[in-house]
Amino acid sequence: MTEQLNQLLEGTPLSALVKPGQKIALLEHNMTVGDALSVLAKNDILSAPLVMQADLEDSGDINMSPSLLGWLDIQDILAALLLFLRTCGHEIPMKMLALMTSLEKEGPKFAKKTLVTIRAADDRGLMYQADSESTSVLTAIKDLFLQTAHGEPKVAHRIALFNAHGEVTSIISQMDVARWLLTQEAHMGPVAQKSIRELGMLTGKPPVVSVSPHMPTLMAYDLMAQEGVSGAPVVTDEGELIANISVSDLRALTSEHFGVLALPVAEFLALEHNTAYIGYSVNASDHSKHPFFASSKRTGGTKKNDIQLYTLHPTSTLLQTLHAFVDTHIHRLYVTTPGSDVLKVESVLTLTDVLRLLAGVW
Asked: What pLDDT, on a 0 to 100 scale, did the predictor assign at position 357?
């Protein structure tokens, strides 16, 4: 990184990134999984701070604020669902109908479990509000978004700021950092026009974790969890990129619809985007805008029924990369080889990768 960019990151307090008037949704520790999923879906979010309400019988103080326990996100709930299914005395079925039957049978039982019983809250990404005024953006990236615990990197996708009463006052996400950085384009210096290849962002990347369009959706998410990624390219047996699946596709998931997780990945995505998967039929695909999905665009687009594929090339600049993240509000971009008729993923770039570059820990 250049000295100019370092000065910008070190000289800007984290509080400068706070968005005024935020509506903060909270999850209570004694809330059921089903109710928690409804709260997340209603607010169109994937995670929320988990709090423990004060016991009025013990404290007698009706004004006592809830205790902030940490974060709980939909990945935690999905991991708990998989564990619950595995502890029901049988292997998770790999066939769609058998898996759907299992989910419809066991799902309602799981939905009645309280949040405090499914896992401990993740206390990463919590900061006292007053500290945000003296903590630089650079320090926040290094110590909060990219903190290390027990020698292992622990990425936080968002930071919750809380006041002296323990109340969450605002949330700052990785996307907020990228959005703010774009407003500072004039102060980024020459690094903004360097390519992701020149910046070394394609060097030393782990192998791409991909999923088959025919894999049960629940098992695709299980694979991603095991590999430590929150999304993956959907590729054919020939290695062609046809879609993206991520935790963002679970944004509207409620306990009444656990059964959809038994669908093959491609059909789950088609249902999510209100279209149809036609990859089974070569002839039908030949007449579609997208060779695998009906009424969809191959790349880009803003409509819900677009199966969007946002890609970069090795020559894409850091500024172009930031715009791609912010303008599309996605957290993952696929690097493909320019000039090829078939989209094949060479590498994956995430917002976390951008933060690692900014922090000098690439």
From this structure: 94
Q: What is the 3-state secondary structure (H, E, C) of the chain?
A: CCHHHHHHHHHCEHHHHCCCCCCCCCEECCCEHHHHHHHHHHCCCCEEEEEECCCHHHHCCCCCCCEEEEEEEHHHHHHHHHHHHHCCCCCCCCCHHHHHHHHHHHHHHHHCCEHHHHCCCECCCEEEHHHHHCCEHHHHHHHHHCCEECCEECCCCEEEEECCCCCEEEEEEHHHHHHHHHHCHHHCHHHHHCECCCCCCCCCCCCCCCECCCCEHHHHHHHHHHHCCCEEEEECCCCCEEEEEEHHHHCCCCHHHHHHHHCEHHHHHHHHCCCCECCCCHHHHHCCCCCCECCCCCCCCCCCCCCCCCEECCCCEHHHHHHHHHHHCCCEEEEECCCCCCCCEEEEEEHHHHHHHHHCCC
- pLDDT, mean of residues 193-216: 94
CA distance 148 to 292: 41
59-68, 103-112, 219-228: lowest mean pLDDT where? 59-68
Rounded Cα gap, residues 292 and 105, in angstroms: 32
What is the spatial distance between Cα 34 and Cα 31, in angstroms, rounded to a whole number? 8
Q: How confident is the model at residue 354 (pLDDT cuts 50, 70, 90)?
A: very high
Residue 329 near residue 175, CB atoms below 8 Å: yes
Residue 250 CA to residue 145 CA, distance in Å, equals 23
d(CA 296, CA 42): 26
Tokens of 222: 């299980």
Residue 280: the pLDDT is: 60
Compute how many other C-beta atoms are within 10 angstroms of the C-beta atom of residue 56.
10
Secondary structure, 3-state, 168-206: EEEEEEHHHHHHHHHHCHHHCHHHHHCECCCCCCCCCCC
Question: In Å, how far are 49, 116, 165 from 121, measured between CA atoms?
Answer: 9, 8, 19
Paired tokens of 44: 């169109």
